[in-house]
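Regression report. Comparing outputs from two consecutive submissions.

Submission 1:
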Amino acid sequence: MKKDTLVTHAGRHPERFDGMVNTPVFRASTVTFPTVAEMGRRHASCYDLPYYGRYGTPTTLALEEAVAAVEGARFGVAVPSGMGAIAATLLTILRPGDHLLMVDSVYGPTRKFCDSALTRMGIETTYYDPLIGAGIAALMTPATKLVFCESPGSLTFEVQDIPAIAEAAHRTGALVALDNTWASPLFFAPFTKGVDLSIQAATKYVVGHSDALLGTITLNDRTLYERLKETLVMFGYSTGSEEAFLGMRGLRSLSARLERHQRNALAVARWLQDQPEVARVLYPALPDDPGHALWARDFTGASGLFGVLLNPASKAQVTAMLDGMTHFAMGFSWGGFESLILATTGNIPRSARPWTWEGPSLRLHVGLEDPEDLIADLRAGLDRLTREPA
């Protein structure tokens, strides 16, 4: 099936639920069994069948099945948040004495987890240049067990050469994990590019309505899948059925929403490129973006999230711009139907590749509003910026 068909049908089994189109919300902690034999059968298949609430319900299992199918994987794991999915992946694969290669442009809380929790566990993290490509082979050691990618990168939107990185990692027996939240399963097919585990903050585009926290991990290795499930159970990670239901609801409209996000984002990004206050737009879908060639080779679309570098301006000027926005709200998440704007100046940590831009920087998430209204809002904001004394 094509992906538009998969997002409509994957994980749906009306025949199991009296013809109901959607898998119902199962609010359950306890699962009972009529016989000892049935309890034993369920226990032996606890990763795939409801056995105890912490292992999952029919609602969460349906979400796992659907996301795995859309992303092209055999197995899916639902987690209470995107950060939970990242932490569960790292804690499942890595042990004391292991070495992790982490992309330098990674989501900030992931970096914090590596520098705090993993360091305390005796796991070494080396941050690598997101543009390293096949050159990552020089950083591999006998202790390297995982290479973690995020493409495009958080806040700065560098596109990684995932196939080249995966080939180098697999030569030494290391696994490759990817944070695929920006592209979603529809715009990047991780398992055709050499990725072993794909992670999403499903809070973002899968849920799509800014009303639930959710994470997913998809993969093809059965043994690793069961290890992930064991990690989640041991740490008490339990995805709520209400959240899983909202994730399934969002998944059904993902294709239509992403198409609109992309169309709107391109219109806004192209307009911003022509504004005198803007130095550069960080969006791989733009032909003059440094990552455009890789994006065009490996991706099938672009989402609504991108960065903006402003020409020199004071903090007071940027504040004047942001404080008066009408359609762009200030908020730390993204992926919902609404447009968001966030100042990122001073919040772009780097270890391997210094971030040298000295002017203000912004992150925009372009929602489903009419792009002409969004452009008018930004124009008014830039006018406030220029009127404010430096």
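Submission 2:
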Amino acid sequence: MVRIVLASNSAARASLLTHAGLIFERRAASVDERAVESTLEGTGAGPDDIAQVLADVKALDVSGGDPDALVIGADQTLSLDGRRYNKPGDLARAYDQLMTFSGRTHILSSAVSCARGGEIVWRHVSEARMSIRRLSPAFIRHYLEIVGDRALTSVGAYQLEGMGIQLFEAIDGDYFTILGLPLLPLLGFLREEGVIDT
């Protein structure tokens, strides 16, 4: 039986795999994401490309130390009008980001990669278009007071599965993509490989 390893400490990604009935181990990759991103500057790499490279690097990092396992790496980027955003480092930056996103549509690019024996054997990237309603400064402050540091754990300063849903007026995309793991394509690959039951 093939062992599955999730190269992530993300509770959301682990929860998605658990609820899908997968048995897996978790081992976070030791990857400096900002350093990897800096190598892509000036190359013309878009948000989808960057998410995919980061997912690849995470999967390969863990696979190198566990060549017999099938390792799943994932990453997500957020872009708006050609600018890419990272997780806000503090609540002041979360506030600024949400003010910038107010009344506009941003794109989440979620990538997943699978590695075995130190090589990428499969990859996929999906996008979701996220339209945030027009937010007042008072509402953003109220929202951040309630969610606190949880706003710092996601690239958009929101968790769609919680109070973050109140920020939106429209969403065009797959729920799993929004949570950072394109689950349906991943499950399809795992079935094709005989890793999970068909």
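Expected: both submissions complete independently.
Actual: both completed, but the second showed a warning that disappeared on reload.
Relevant detail on submission 2: The chain has seven helices and seven strands.
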